[in-house]
Each structure stands twice: as C-alpha cells, then as structure tokens.
C-alpha cells in the first residue's frame, strides 16, 4: 500500500527526472539565457576597467579631455547592451517558466480527470483543489526564484 501523497518523499534526483520532460522543450531558451548572463557579467567586469582607463586618459600630465569622449560613449554602449541582454534574458526565462507552469497545469488536470470516482468520495474537495492550485503555483515560484538567483 502506498503512503498518502503528503507523506511520500522524493529525492532531488527523482524530482529532477520528473521535470526534465517539461524543461527539455525550452533548452534553447535556457542556453541563450545562460549565454546572456555570461555576456552581462563580462560587461559588468569591463565597466570599472573602462572607467579606470578613462580616468588615466583624462587626468595627469598627459591629460586630454577629448580622449574622454570615446570612453564615455563606450561606457554608455556597455550600459545599453547590458540592459538589452538582461531584459532579453528575463523575458526568455519568464516566458519559459510560464509555459512550463501551463503545461504542468494541463497535465495535472488531465490526470485528475482520470482518477476513479471513489477517490473523490474519500478526499475532501478543498484538499484536491489546494493540491492542484497551490502545488503548481509553488513549483512555478521555485522555478522562477531559482532562475532569478542564477541571473
């Protein structure tokens, strides 16, 4: 006899194995988001270096304020590119997360509609609804939060 759903425990490996079919269709979105994270991080590292070079070029015995303009323009370009990369990354991750959550809800609904009638006689309606709504919501929030931490 199986333990009640609330008392069953799964390893992280089992949970990940269960979610891989939902994540696989969005592999390219996640890879692109990962590359955008790397590019954005590289731009974050480049900004202080660029400021240092701008200060070196505009201060000291060979100071020339005209040399400062290219550094300012490059700094502005880095900020705009970093904003574009971060916005695109956020969109890709959020869109994939919403689609995964939707697919989970559709699959769960399909599964619940095939439960035997005695299950509904024994289980309170509130418990069924809570499990359907809140569990999927929690999974979506965990997924979104973990992607935000990676970013």
Structure description:
The structure is a single chain. This protein is mainly alpha-helical. The protein has a single domain (27-150), classed as Up-down Bundle (ABC transporter transmembrane region fold), CATH 1.20.1560. Helices cover 80% and strands 0% of the residues. The chain has helices spanning 12-23, 27-58, 68-112, 117-122, 125-150. The longest helix has 45 residues, at 68-112. The protein is rod-shaped, with a radius of gyration of 25 Å.
Secondary-structure element series: HHHHH
Total number of beta strands = 0
- CATH fold-type name: ABC transporter transmembrane region fold
Structural class: mainly alpha
Q: Look at the structure and name the CATH superfamily.
A: ABC transporter type 1, transmembrane domain
Question: How many helix segments?
Answer: 5
Approximate helicity band: over 70%
Distance between the termini: 43 Å
Radius of gyration: 25 Å
